[in-house]
Amino acid sequence: MNIAAKPPLTIRLCGPRGFCAGVDRAIQIVVLALKSYGAPVYVRHEIVHNRYVVEGLEAKGAVFVEELNEIPEEHRAQPVVFSAHGVPKSVPEDASARNLFYLDATCPLVSKVHKQAMRHNRLGRHVILIGHAGHPEVIGTMGQLPEGSVSLIETVEDADVYVPADPDNMGYVTQTTLSVDDTAGVIARLQERFPNLTAPAADSICYATTNRQEVVKQAAPGCDLFIIVGAPNSSNSKRLVEVALRAGAKKSILVQRASELDWSEIGSISTLGLSAGASAPEVIVNEIIEAFRTRFDAKVELAETVQENEHFLVNRELRSIELTSADMAFVNG
Questions:
Q1: Burial profile 246-277: b = 16 or more Cβ within 10 angstroms, e = fewer
Q2: What are the tens digits of pLDDT across the range 270-280?
Q3: Using one digit for the tens of pLDDT, what is the confidence trace for 204-229?
Q4: Measured between alpha carbons, how far is 303 from 19 in angstroms, rounded to an integer?
Q5: What are the catalytic residues?
Q6: Beta partners for 64?
């Protein structure tokens, strides 16, 4: 009996994609803490926005909690790690008050935004934070300054109706994982209304967010479907779905695992775009590719704009601990 030939498919695999240096560092901190101090290592909130990563760390002995008071008395000597998104100043203060040993895994680029906001405040400016309400990074950034010192602007519409106390004495910063194009529109509207608005010393949107959006823009035209690997609570991953649609992909979806793919919805396609948010591991990208190869005669083409070589050092307490490829195989393959 003749077996029907698989339909041809070109997969445009974006580069760069997946883990950024800040996410990689945060995961390494938890892994190294487990090697150095043994289980359990507590982590306040998801270390990064990816369920696969969280479950992989749980399997190694990490315990995720929402608040520090959930850490049992008998484990107070074990380390607690703060997530890559950053935390309000009240969290390390609370940890110190409880005599907890903590390791801060805040991405250095998020810490840079904290410093930019604090500089505006120190110079007497009211801080405008462009970002998404409720996102952990926004909560952390607003929590660096006294209550009332920061106003959150999410959209151009917000910028249209915002009424400041002193329109000539403001400075802005942004969440690091926003859409570059959307944010530019919000900033332009604020600057139009408030010409004396002071910009941060450097862009707040991080290099990884920008790089991933740029390559998706280039790869999207002509794609029948564009898949972004990432979690539904991952801001930068959701932005990539939007970028792909705007840049010309006929359809774009966000998936966490290959098991979420609805093949009846995917139907007959000839060109697939594929990228991953900054907190999505490469093993899942490979899993998605293999899922398509079982149904299509798939050819992978690399769509690459730049190569990233950034590396952020882990906490000083962990630098003497060896990190092997086997330690990170659960995310890197």
A1: ebebebbbbbbebeebeeeebeebebbbbbbb
A2: 999 999 999 99
A3: 889 999 999 999 999 999 999 999 99
A4: 17
A5: 137
A6: 43
